[in-house]
Design goal:
Elements (H helix, E strand, L loop, with lengths): L4 E4 H31 L7 H25 L1 E4 L15 E6 L5 E7 L10 E3 L3 H6 L7 E6 L2 E11 L2
Parallel strand pairs: 1-2, 4-5
Antiparallel strand pairs: 3-4, 3-7, 6-7
Helix pairs in contact: 1-2
């Protein structure tokens, strides 16, 4: 994996915060839990020890994963981009479903940042792929596993 992975400034900051939390809080707590469990004697039948070691493995794996993702991240600050009205990575898009007239707002983000409940969709999703490169006022046909939807792009915000 040598390709740069796009990520918003907010997404990179959230990953850095998680990394700091894991290294400065979780790791010392696990070390302490392992030390306490060792004091209880026989490690073969010590459930606390095995649970702490399992948690340690998870935390160390997550630390490596985050460090790897940050090392390949191409952090894109959407506010520094020219405000052309085009849909690009990092923008917030207001859409209107042509059939139902239901309005939706999505922010196009990196894969690790995507969270549909927060209105953040991955740039690799069918909706985002259909929108990227389009402009305000365009009508876009989005092919999804649930069927085709036609949207009008009401607004593109660089926030």
């Amino acid at each position: 994996m040598t390709d740069k992975v796009p990520m918003t400034v907010e997404g990179a900051e959230a990953m850095r915060e998680e990394l700091t939390q894991l290294k400065s809080k979780e790791r010392p707590e696990i070390i302490q839990a392992i030390a306490e469990a060792r004091e209880h004697g026989d490690l073969k039948e010590n459930a606390e020890y095995h649970a702490a070691r399992e948690r340690q493995g998870f935390v160390e794996g997550r630390i490596k994963e985050i460090e790897g993702k940050l090392s390949y991240a191409q952090i894109i600050d959407v506010q520094s981009l020219p405000k052309s009205g085009k849909v690009v990575f990092g923008v917030t898009v207001e859409l209107c479903d042509i059939d139902t007239e239901e309005e939706k707002t999505y922010k196009i983000v990196g894969e690790d940042e995507a969270n549909i409940q927060q209105g953040k969709i991955s740039f690799t999703s069918p909706v985002a792929r259909s929108l990227i490169g389009r402009e305000e006022g365009d009508c876009v046909l989005v092919k999804t596993p649930g069927g085709d939807h036609e949207y009008e792009i009401l607004a593109v915000r660089y926030e």
